[in-house]
Amino acid sequence: MSHLRFLPRFRLFVQQRATRVLQVLDQNANTRTTEVIHYSTTYVVNGNTPDEATRNAEKQKTDSNKILFEGLGKSVGILSTLMGFTDEEFGGQLKEHVALRRRL
Hints:
Blueprint: H1 7-42, H2 52-84, H3 88-103
Helix pairs in contact: 1-2, 1-3, 2-3
């Protein structure tokens, strides 16, 4: 049972890593939301349309963000699984955060 003395430090480590990942997800989501709002006011429905270069750049950015968000979400998922082995409640809370972020 000597390994139990490491539990508080392990929990703190997992919590710090998960918090950082969630911060990155939030920051990127906020940036993307701002960009989308900008485009919605610049290219109104039945009005101006973006040129092909802009459309291609946005598609590439969307594809890149999808990969980033999925990777970060998986990272928190792995951390929550690891934490769940020692603290089921805390591991469950991390999984809930990931599920919430995916819905946003």
